């Protein structure tokens, strides 16, 4: 497989840095090709603006979506955006690796998504009609590729449990996994999450490394999260709400995942071994 790691941590000697290096070595030893976008080392520009195109803005104001589509279609995107899009096209699997900061990804990684996911590339794709609302949520330009999050969190695992004060980890990661990854078509694997990162000794790190190695070894075969595809018949179009007979009595994020309770229980059991 061809694997792209998009890495967002400013310190190479951090836990994230060690896990990144381990992941690269493990994947390469298994015969995979690996590329890394180290956003801090690249000094990635996180803000969307008119400089993302080599053409001047058309019209009296800067319309982000319209200018993004025009630059993508005309081949006038800035070189850094085009390069990252090329990496996404190249990859069979993408790993987003980051620390959970303020309940989300670091700003530099969000900025990577906002600039690289250009209109016409990752969104605004496909037919939009009363029968179909575009190629997204299971379809799109990145369909057929796999993706996984590697996340570190300072809090205890219980803080991110079903009744934990921080909220369930599946809910916190839903906007990233469902919105950023599944939206343009990725098959999204269950995340690899490391908790209580300030309390890791050599023995625990060895267990974490071994568990990560097992996940990387099965990157091509692990069943993805069973998100419901937008155009698969579960949703009313164009309202894009679940049909009355789909997940009756359920609401919120979990309703958009088939068998989510079983998947969460399996993952909780795995983390409890770390």
From TrEMBL:
SUPFAM superfamilies with a match to the protein in the record:
Flavoproteins
Please report the stretch or stretches of sequence annotated as the Flavodoxin-like fold domain. 1-214
Going by the UniProt record, its keywords in alphabetical order are:
Oxidoreductase
Spell out the molecular function terms from Gene Ontology.
NAD(P)H dehydrogenase (quinone) activity
Q: Output the InterPro entries linked to this UniProt entry.
A: Flavodoxin_fold, Flavoprotein-like_sf, NAD(P)H_dehydrogenase_qn
GO CC annotation, single:
cytosol
Family named by the database record: Belongs to the NAD(P)H dehydrogenase (quinone) family.
Q: What is this protein called?
A: NAD(P)H dehydrogenase (Quinone)
Q: Which organism is it from?
A: Paraburkholderia caballeronis
